[in-house]
Design brief:
Elements: H1 3-17, H2 22-33, H3 43-47, H4 51-59, H5 68-81, H6 85-101, H7 129-150
């Protein structure tokens, strides 16, 4: 999925959880984008070079940062720091993994095992019209939900 689709779902999830704390929305959105740090040409990858190039060279795309292993590491890091925002980052990461599981590339969900997992026969293609359509639906739903929360 493209960054816009991940961002839109992150915003949507964040607005449902925000409880008048904008940092919750930020944490979920950050988590929804961060797994693509392993791809230097993604939005987050371009913002985090040379880290992104290093991760891509060492592990490849949709491996370590697209795994439940990474979610666990992130969650444990939050427990050690006693920072509950890491649970929201983990939720964003999980939303990213779910969307990428729907694509024809899938993800190495149980990394370091090399098995790629794909849901629904990988019917979605990253950058396809369906990808953008989902992003637009998520974004419109986010805007509607946000406005309803203000009322």
């Amino acid at each position: 999925m493209k960054s816009f689709t991940h961002l839109s779902l992150g915003l949507l999830l964040g607005v449902f959880l925000w409880n008048n704390d904008p940092l919750i929305i930020f944490a979920v959105v950050f988590g929804s984008l961060f797994p693509d740090v392993d791809y230097p040409f993604s939005l987050i990858g371009r913002l985090s070079q040379p880290l992104s190039f290093w991760i891509h060279e060492e592990f490849g795309h949709r491996t370590i940062t697209h795994s439940l292993t990474y979610v666990l590491i992130n969650s444990l890091f939050g427990l050690i720091l006693k920072n509950f925002y890491f649970q929201y980052i983990s939720l964003g990461i999980l939303s990213h993994l779910l969307l990428d599981l729907l694509t024809n590339q899938g993800v190495m969900l149980l990394w370091p095992l090399q098995t790629r997992f794909i849901l629904l026969d990988g019917e979605l293609v990253t950058g396809s019209k369906t990808d953008y359509f989902l992003g637009i639906i998520f974004f419109i739903t986010f805007i509607s939900s946000y406005l309803l929360n203000l009322i």
